[in-house]
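TL;DR need structure tokens for one chain.
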Amino acid sequence: MTAAGWAEEALDLVLRRAGQTAEQVGDRFPLYAEPAGGRWTTTARGSWTGGFWAGLLWLRAGRSGSDGDRTTAATVTARLAPWAEADTATRGLILWYGTAPAAGDAAAGTLRDHAAQAALGAFDPELGLVPWGAALGGARLRARTDGVPGLVPLLASAGPEGRAAAAAHLHAHLDLCLPRDGAGRLRPAWCRDGARGWTAEADPAPGWARGEAWLLLAVADALLLADAPFWRTERLARTAELLLADGAMLTGPLVPPADAHHADGPRDTSAAAITAVALLKLALAPGTARPEACASRAEAVLHRLAHAHLTRAGGTRPAGMLLDGCYDAGSGTAVRHELVWGDFFLALGLAALLGRADLRRV
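>> reply
TL;DR here they are.
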């Protein structure tokens, strides 16, 4: 089967699965589905993953051209509105990926604009970043790698001041998270107090594959957005190379262990799917050192996900499930499951590979 053929088949499977999921979850948001039968664990408000569900539905609507599918996507997106004012840096994950695929939808664009201005209002100029926030629990003054993707393009959509804040937010996280001596794994989570300043948190620990993928995605977005000196493109390009090397993203397993220090533990297909999208973005970005290698590796990752981890018809479980996603290896929560953000990034990567999604805009 040609590249176009297998990618078309896989994308159709994932998007048909999204339609079945919509019927199953109703007005709730899917979070993760158990691998045996595909039953979803859901949330009422979507938590940090709600935007991926809305984004997946927009990808389905774009693929089908159905007015009914657009209405479903728009209805889910509208339910994300309370997150625009929530005290959380994950509003980037929620409200960028929940609205950016909604081409031509005025309501989604209005919600994205509102969220961008609210995020800009939460930017702390003294810290140089948008704090992690308290909306999901825990200390407010924290910095985590999953508080950067989505928020970079969301802030950048808020005009010149927003672009400057987006660059500062990203570079503040790079200052904290990248290894000080240029070697070893990044530290993905930090907390600040008045006495000690910033201190690294134990959980998630270095070696968290999804945390590394999230940061690579944010760097790739910044390289695509860079239009002024404050983006510091040379540092971003060096950081991309560092992340690719330290995370073995061009040479290691196509689907990495959820924790690099436990190679025999669960793998994380969602980290692989995020990485594939980041690599496709890097292949488009000016100044990327190895664009052809990034594009080739992204296609290889998507091919592996489509052929080794995506369910087909004929078994006891639904077709179109991206299995072997790891929600939280440390607690043993949903370690071989279908994850809604894994589905989204697989669909987005496949659509981009087929020329049906513009990764400069999503």
